[in-house]
Amino acid sequence: MDRRSFLKNAGLAGATAGAATLAAPALAAGKRELKMVTTWPKNFPGLGTGAQRIADRITAASEGQLTVKLFAAGELVPAFESFDAVSNGTADMYHAADYYWLGKHKAFGFFTAVPMGMTAAELEAWMHFGGGQQLWDELAGQFNVKSFLAGNTGLQAGGWFNKEINSLEDLKGLKMRMPGLGGEVLRRLGASAVALPGSEIFPALQSGAIDATEWVGAWNDMAFGFYKVAKYYYTKGFHEPGAGLSFGMNKGVWESFTPGQQELIRSACMAENNYMFAEYNHNNGAALETLLTKHNVQVRDFSDDVFDAIGRKAEEVVAEVAETDDISKRIYESYIKSRKETSAWSSLAERNYLTARDRILG
Fold it and tell me: Which positions carry the signal peptide feature in this UniProt record (predicted)?
């Protein structure tokens, strides 16, 4: 290389280095700290830790350009005020179950779980391929929120009871913690349903303020210690056959991100959705074994008569949501159509296989 070429190339290198030096402070100036609120107790297994994983994924994948700080229920706002906090910009994002917002709009229940509704796999199919995400965007957008699926607990248990449920008469007058449309089903069958955040359930059950509660499944239920104050554990939860958890972000904040940052957040939510579902499937079996062998929990199943009556009432309650307004009708029709299509295969394939496998292997 001759002297003239060397000086020319050196000059270009110096200019490039100078540009990089000037760009670095601009990049640093673009760093943002974001607040995530949740409806879960701090570090609660599965739910609380799942929210923290999303925060950590976004922070790590953005290489610190987006730093997410998590606030558990009550640390920044009360659990059930998470939606309003994100909608009005007090917080940037939430991790919750959208059926907590039925007071805002009844159709929010479809994006967590509805009685006799979709399993986790069926819900994900609707969201990604059946138009569910687009309808959710439209509904949540009315409240200045952008939402994604960000976790699933799988099929939930029927709940903890202080007495056996042998007939519909046993439900009458029963005070049970059950939010969402499942709670409305219980009310129409004569029970008294209340919505309580997770941290308030155990003391309410212990004091007798409620007679029964549903929560999630064996893993989370054991962590809350419900076996200490309730004797009977019912399976086959009609109310949440595949409870999807939601990541909601202030719409203005979402729209302020670059396309790459938006894709990063979308991918972090999808990763957690799959990770959490696997986590619950792994831990529920071991926890159930502990409940049975160490804590002498008595597992029960709702009789066909009770479950059939619940199912018929559930279909009425869910169908009535469609009468609320135009978007409710479109969400309901889309949900039912997708449930019918996906269940045709899941019933033929998975149910028949599992029945045969259990018959052979026990």
Answer: 1-28
